[in-house]
Amino acid sequence: MFKKTLFTIALLFGTAVACCAQQARNVLFIGNSYTQVNNLPAMVAAIAESMGDRMTYQSNTPGGCTFSQHCTNQSMQLIRSGEWDAVVLQEQSQLPSFPQSQVETEVFPYAKRLVDSIYANNPCCEPMFYMTWGRKDGDGQNAAEFPVLGTYEGMDSMLCERYTYMAQTNDASLCPVGRVWHYLRDNNSDIELYQADGSHPSVAGTYAAACAFYVLLFHRNPEMINYNAGLPESTASTIRMAAHDIVYASLAQWLRPVPESSLNVTETVDRTVTLVSTSVNADSLIWFFGDGTDTQTSASQTTHEHTYPAPGSYRVSLIASRHCMADTATITIDIESDSSVVAIQHCPDEPIDIALYPNPATETLNITAQASGSALLEVISSNGTALWHRAIDLSESVSIPVADWPSGIYIVRLVTSSGTLTKRAVVKH
Question: Which of 387, 365, 380, 385 is closest to 410 using CA atoms?
Fold first, then answer.
């Protein structure tokens, strides 16, 4: 069995959170000293503040802590206690680089358990794996038994491979900090990313991680960041450029799969039309037929027949959704008097907004939207259970009785032909 080295490093500076922001994210960091040293979460928050954004956060980062230990310590309680926008997951620094059989036993099952818990608490939350880096000169402690670990390149390649696998198999995003470090080592070796132990990050190393996380969390260009973490401007600028080239320039590569909707007509008999979805990365499909009717199916049901009441022009939309993300494909179907059909692709409308009141609610939650057309409205509990689910007319207010619901935070999801909108409602008794 391979051996892990444990480190405990003191925090160097406190939390910095902005009061006013263009974007706001609430993030939980789960990891160990690689996250704790130089207070990575606080540095990300400081970067966000410098950009006019806001990141609130909590952390659980005991030295040397593994995913298996996080499954039984305070981390599970923290996952359940907050309405997180994202949860960052960082494994012990050596463990993912070990032989495949050991990783399959000691890492992968616990990564899955953590991600499953994240989605169970909040189906809209974004799990995000923190890809760490190879040690400066490799892992000499374990190289005799697994020679690939004897160099930085070998250890780093193993970490990259295993974190990529964990993200892909758990429907999670991946923050490629290790790739940013690799780029800097190759192109800017004068920047010292390591502390003297050859393992933990220097301030420059943590700054590289913080820039990468800012990109993943806020989807903004890191070259615009004006917070330097006390580094010389030339050093900070070089690191920001590396985060741009590795993360921002290929952002879709690192984000969890986004649903892509695709809709077509394959056959018509009289006024019965066969609609086919070729959508990808979707869990569920919502079909709006343009005649005031709709239905929701699983993504595996790719074909749907619908009979129209009379000739006319109908706007048909298919919404493919996954983890509160959605994409819409829209066509118009012109049914002529002789039952012939012409399908024309066109762009969806801009997203709409809704108002929730009172919020917090005690007896009734009212929902209004100043729009026309139909939509699917869902209210989801914090454990992912759909408590209320109904097709509504957007021009009318909806009142949902909540007196019998437990106090807590609920997700209100509105699915229209323009996409999906989510808001939070609070029930308080």
Answer: 380
Tokens at 186, concatenated: 């190759």
Domains 24-254 and 355-427 share a fold: no
The domain covering 263-346 belongs, at the CATH homologous superfamily level, to Immunoglobulins (2.60.40.10)
Domain 24-254 top-level CATH class: alpha beta
Of 175, 174, 207, which is closest to residue 188 (Cα–Cα)? 207
State the Cα–Cα distance between residues 31 and 114, nearest whole angstrom: 12
Q: Where are the domains of the chain?
A: 24-254, 263-346, 355-427
- Which residue type sits at 286? I
Question: Is 311 in a helix, a strand, or coil?
Answer: coil
On whether the 355-427 domain is CATH 1.10.3720.10, my answer is no
**pLDDT, tens digit, 9 for 90 and up, residues 409-429:** 888 888 776 667 788 898 998
> Is pLDDT above 70 for 257?
yes
Please report the pLDDT score of residue 110 as a whole number: 98
Query: Among candidates 347, 352, 344, 415, which has minimal Cα distance to 380?
Result: 415
The first and second tokens of residue 391, run together, are 């097709």
Q: Please tell me the pTM assigned to this model.
A: 0.81
Residue 236 CA to residue 242 CA, distance in Å, equals 10
Which residues are within 8 A (CB) of 195 and not within 5 positions of it... i.e. 6 or more apart? 37, 201, 202, 205
* Cβ 216 vs Cβ 173: under 8 Å: yes
First vs last Cα of the chain: how many Å apart?
53
Instruction: Identify the band that residue 391 occupies on the pLDDT scale cut at 50, 70 and 90.
Output: confident
